[in-house]
Amino acid sequence: MRVTVLGAGRVGLTTALSLAYSGHEVTCIDKREDVLDSIRRGQPTFYEPGVAELLGQTNVQFSYPLTPESASARVLMVAVGTPPLADGRADLSAVESVASDVASLLPDGGNTVFTIKSTVPPGTSRWIQNLIDDSLAANNAKVTVAANPEFLRGSSSLMDTLCPDRIVLGTSDAASKATLLELYQPIVDQRFVFPAEITRPNRSRPVPVVTTTPLNAELIKYVSNAFLAARLSFVNEIAGLAERVGGDITQVMYGVGLDPRIGSSYLAAGVGWGGPCFGKDTSALLRLAEDNDYDMPVLQSTIAVNQRQRRAVVEKLERTLGTLQGKTVGLLGLAYKANTGEVHDSPALAVASGLTAAGARVRGYDPMAEAAAKRWYPHVDIEYSRSALEAAHDCDAVMVMCEWQEFKELPLPQLASVMKGKALLDAKNVLDRRSVEQSGLTYLGMGR
Ligand SMILES: NC(=O)c1ccc[n+]([C@@H]2O[C@H](COP(=O)([O-])OP(=O)(O)OC[C@H]3O[C@@H](n4cnc5c(N)ncnc54)[C@H](O)[C@@H]3O)[C@@H](O)[C@H]2O)c1
Description:
Layout: E1 2-6, H1 10-21, E2 25-29, H2 33-40, H3 51-57, E3 61-63, H4 68-71, E4 75-78, H5 93-105, E5 111-116, H6 124-135, E6 142-147, H7 157-162, E7 167-170, H8 174-189, E8 209-212, H9 214-245, H10 249-257, H11 275-291, H12 297-321, E9 328-332, H13 347-357, E10 361-365, H14 370-376, E11 382-384, H15 388-392, E12 397-400, H16 405-408, H17 412-418, E13 423-426, H18 433-438, E14 442-444
Parallel strand pairs: 1-2, 1-4, 2-3, 4-5, 5-6, 7-8, 9-10, 9-12, 10-11, 12-13, 13-14
The structure holds nicotinamide-adenine-dinucleotide.
């Protein structure tokens, strides 16, 4: 099937590669020349296992701008960004812009499914459909808007698009539904040899497909992120209590998670959630509720608890050291989670700001995220180091902010020997307290 993907960011590129790998003829459009140049050189603009390899194995055409030919593909996949506006609402200008491009370029008689993969507030598909219908009034072309939200995780995008845990198709139009089911059939059936670079996850086959209205599909995406964020905020709230009464949150949640009604994933306490999606999507959902005169206290608390958790980490270190004024703190991990170079809304960078505001000097090290941290957070005052040991050198305290494998395997006696002080704050609960203490350091965890 001929498909045009709009946007070549994390979602657009992995979607384009996965659809091409599963047998479709894919063109991918992005307005940023630097993004296209880098991809054409075989270098994706983000770190992700397997993406560079699949670029070499598939035949996606990368170009700009959209043309009448690329606009009249059977399916258009919209994967442009929907970043937060200052008031927390989603900025839909890129979606609106590609919609008007399609409406103006689609030739007479053209027929395409404008499939919104970007995360958009419930009601957006209906709004875009009206917008396109108005522009097409004088043209004998047909565009049906469908919602097809993306659920990939930032550190395993390709694995999640090639073998998703579900596919959600939101359309009330029978022909569009049939087209999208045909598009996804190879992925639903897992009808291909999985790329050697990626491990196929152990997920149900065939991949479950949810067919519903566009509005329900849009809600499914927002609710999934809000639910996961709420779950983590609840665990972090309990972690604070466990700490005060002498409990260990890791053992508590292990016991809680064995209940099949609860399940064991997304129960880890720590510095809280972050990244490019949870913060912006929970805020956008809250604003949508406000616009509809509806109060969402659980969602409000989910966000508030997460902000408090970031402050709590800084306060914990301040209590331990007496003061942060004039202290040197090494931050190990700047990305919002391991196996990604993504720093947007990273708790580590919020903590770095909190530390410097309290008078500390911050050294930082991340195996992948240094360039992104410098680019997106130039105002956060961090002295960058080339290794964990270099960052820890002469530090009064070291904080492990991210669950990178190399931090789980830190050479603790060596770390202790290069540090000036003794405090090791494990903000993701990834270290073994006994090993830390045996190396002569003081262990500080989250809720344990
Ligand atoms: N990153 C994730 O983990 C993730 C997961 C699920 C859903 N999403 C959602 O998917 C969407 C895309 O996310 P992303 O992380 O890929 O964003 P991104 O910002 O990395 O990429 C978006 C791309 O769209 C391009 N673009 C913008 N306007 C354009 C236009 N008019 N024509 C052509 N190209 C245009 C930009 O140049 C950019 O390269 C967002 O709505 C996001 O919330 C993201």
